[in-house]
Amino acid sequence: MELQYDVAIVGSGITGAIIARWLTERGHSVVLLEAGTPDGNSRAGFRQLTETFYQETAKVPSSPFRAQQSRDWPVYDSGVEAPTVLRDMAARPLGDEAQANAYYLQRGAEHPFASTYLRIAGGTTMHWMGTCLRMLPADFEMRSRYGVGVNWPFGYNELEPFYRLAEWEIGVSAERSEQVASGAPYPADYEYPMHKIPDSWLDQYLAKRLDGFSVAIDGQSYPIGVTNTPAGRNSHPHIGAKDPRFYAPPGNYRPVGDPDRPDQFGERCVGNSSCVPICPANAKYTALKTLRFALASDRGSASLLTRRIVTRINLDPAGKEVESLDYFDYSVVPAIKGRVRAKVYVLATNAIENAKLLLASGRSREEGVANSSGLVGRNLMDHPTLLTWALLRDPIGAFRGPGSTAGVTGMRDGEFRSKFSSARIEIGNWGWSWPKITPDTTVIDLVGADDKPTVFGQQLRQQVNFQSQREVTLAFEMDQLPDENNRIYVEEGVIEARHSEFRPIIDFSLDEYCRRGMANASKVASAIYDRVGATEKTEHNPEGRFGRKAGYFRHEDSETGELEFHGAGHLAGTHRMGNDPKSSVVDADQRSWDHANLYIAGCGSMPTMGTANPTLTGAALAFRTAQSIDRDLLAGKPVTP
Amino acid sequence: MNLRLEQHRANIISRLTTAMQIEHATIPPYLCAMYSMVEGYNVAAWETIRTVAIEEMLHMVLVANLRNAMEHDASFDLTSPGFVPEYPAYLPESDQSFTVVLAPFSEKALDIFVQIERPGDLHTPTGESDGYVSIGEFYNRLKEDLKAIVAEHGDDAVFCGDPARQINAAWYFNGGGEIVAVTDQSSALRAIRVIVNQGEGFNHNLYSGDHEEFQEVQDLAHYYKFREIQAGRRYLPADATCGNLDGARGPSGETFTVDYSAKAVRHAVFNYNPADLDAPVQEMLLGFSQLYWQLLGACEEAFNGGGAAPLKKAHELMYVTKYKAEEIMNQPLDYHSDSRTGPLFLHPDVLRQKLGKASDG
């Protein structure tokens, strides 16, 4: 079975959705091929996801979607499990037999790659927090400014208009007047579409106590403060702010609620406190909100084909252009194979799956498609995250509201970046739930493991309450430099049998630049806790809790000598952009240097990480790509640079 | 001062005062139906009634904007006894062809909701009073008055209110339509059009006009939302045959579950004597009245030019009153049946009197 369109997009996450919407509004025909299911798209489906989440004991990011693993899930008749939730991803010691069941195979490196993602319509935005920070100008020029990493093929100023488009498409809540202090320039007449999500009581508490504080990093003083974090979460619109998107309806910005009933549900955050993994009100942005407009457009046409896993990119006989995509369609019984043809092809899955598909498609596994540079799959980056936590003197109402509403600023940029990583510090509103799985473990610890409980009754309630109300976590998202040896690749025989796909094989470790940055971060954390009068409770140890072993290592410069990092779920770098085909996979528009009608889009194109959560930057890049594809189609052929 | 203009203006403002009462009067019955539904059951019906209730609140704001546009320093009063009718009651100035009661989610409740929203041309006139037959008819008379006064005196003279009092679009959400700021005849007529079309549909079809007016997703008018719940079926566009929307055909689309049993609905009763209740439940009732009248007070303050603070307060109070109402509905009225206690929407002073308590300062 063969289908034909102007544009075929692999993946219906935020990158695919943004490109689809733009091109559809420009009058083109687009198909999105999604490996997962469409469950969040209808109110009934979304409610089911929420119900599943409520009933799960472990509220991990994939918890609303776990039911899709079951063959009893009523949506499926095909008997094929959706690949939505990756099999057990927990970081495991190398050589552990449990790796046989895991989706990733990790070998040959010291540290685990600990981040996961979702394969479902809407992509990983289905469970993200919604943080929408721009990268800083320096992040684009790491090589010229600090002599480390590489430069992007353009600077912040050139990407800035695309950041605006991304902020209006996602619907970001923030005050421009507060954000200008971050160091990223904004045009004078720009305003965000919606007012900021109010700072939490904890944010205000820390801000007061950090007023006038600064820390010394590598001999220089850096002022430390608290700033509200821009969020893809609905709030009151800024009346009078101008929408930069050509397809936006006239009048004031209208917050987009539930994708099925956008005017009736989810137009405001109402404080459900479960953003990760799901917003029951649907006030948090997911790519489904962009997809629904792409699918409803009457200017062009968009089709969303779900339960189709693209398994191979086919090149023409000369090996120059992409001719078609093969996919495995498990929406029918029995599953069948299909093929799609288009004028332009876009890979928009994520950094790992994009690279995997390219490598799986080559004549030889090492070569892959679009890989004359040899860099496909290489320079895999995350934001290795150092968790620190403390008990505050006073109650601050933890576990309420969005997971994070502000960050501690001051460490994102500076001269020290020539020597070690900078970091973004996220203030966690949900107590110690991330590092310690409180309040569940609080009860377990207080009651004790024997038959005779140590603490119970009224005393138990009081102590749980006392602690829970005073918990704070500061998460340091570390910048990570590109390293060719950090990579994802595939190998014959290492297969995910259910869907005839390759399993990603990942090599990953932290270099000394990052380790030293984490060591420095651990000291900054202690200084902050000291300043605000909190008792630090951070502990890092090799064994971890409940068999969870994050990336543990020792470093003499750290506060206690021991450190541990977690994955932030930020996947990047594996098909990086640049000006030179020898040292990059795609150009500044995310077009493959090797195949003029193939775009490889998403955070995988990022040459450096900086310290901003990457989704907003990925979204900005998606708008650039959409405009390039539009030019291609209008010219009747790919416009080779 | 132009006496004729001011008399004419006073006449319209009097109608707008009635309009505010009418729009609010539909809300407690809708809320009672919602509060009575046990979570997890009748989800489709709950979501529908919720959007209707929210849109009635939009109508209240539109009426406030209309009045504030035409009257300088308007003084709204939502909190004196008499603003909220003592249910069962007729809609103010209506033809009194049906009574509005507080009831749990039930066939009886749906019958009344359908009557409230029924478009004029689908009513059978009873000929017993000269009140309006439908809410739409009431607003049509208002619209004619408005056009007449502007034709005679002009926009500037009529719309002399302080623009700063107009409540802006940012404050309304999770319902169809938008807040219209009223500054002239065109925006005034738009505000009235939104109210009428959301209730009864426009151009003799099923829909609310929000799609045409505000580029929103196509949505049914309130009357047809209730008809869907009565039938347990969705409308298809083809069901709107010209001039015979209520014919034998009815909605013919997808079915959905409607369950009136005690498992799915708290069978709340409202016609009891509050003095007969146990003391703790009496306290709950009083607490509810106080909260609800604080909510009305916040709306009143916002309409009287209070700005953002009372609007925020009103939103918070909506949640608090909901929790209190559900608490009351969880109380059995007696121990022999599945009857529950319905929250009475009685002014705190009136309730205290019925409870035999002294007035509160």
Describe the protein's architecture and organization.
The complex is a heterodimer of chains A (641) and B (361). Chain A is of the alpha+beta class. Helices cover 22% and strands 17% of the residues of chain A. In chain A, strands 6, 11, 12, 13, 14, 19, 20 and 21 form an 8-stranded antiparallel β-sheet that branches. In chain A, helix 1 packs parallel to helix 7, helix 1 runs parallel beside helix 13 and helix 4 crosses helix 13. The mean pLDDT of chain B is 91. The chains are: A alpha+beta (641), B mainly alpha (361). Chains A and B meet through loops of A and helix 3 of B.
Descriptors:
heterodimer; A: 641 residues; alpha+beta; eight-stranded antiparallel sheet; seven-stranded mixed sheet; 22 strands; B: mainly alpha; 12 helices; 51% helix
Chain-wise SSE layout:
The complex is a heterodimer of chains A (641) and B (361).
Chain A (H helix, E strand, L loop, with lengths): L1 E9 L3 H12 L3 E5 L9 H13 L49 E2 L35 H5 L9 H15 L5 H4 L21 H10 L3 E4 L2 E4 L1 E4 L59 H9 L4 E5 L2 E8 L6 E8 L6 E12 L3 H10 L24 E7 L14 E4 L13 E6 L4 H4 L3 H8 L9 H12 L2 E8 L8 E3 L5 E2 L4 E2 L2 E3 L4 H20 L3 E2 L14 E4 L7 E5 L31 E3 L14 H21 L6
Parallel strand pairs in A: 1-2, 1-10, 2-7, 3-18, 10-22
Antiparallel strand pairs in A: 4-5, 6-12, 8-9, 9-10, 11-14, 11-19, 11-21, 12-13, 13-14, 15-18, 16-17, 20-21
Helix pairs in contact in A: 1-7, 1-13, 4-13, 10-11
Chain B lengths: L2 H23 L1 H10 L6 H28 L36 H11 L17 H19 L1 H4 L26 H16 L9 H5 L7 H10 L35 E3 L9 H28 L1 H22 L9 E3 L6 H8 L6
Parallel strand pairs in B: 1-2
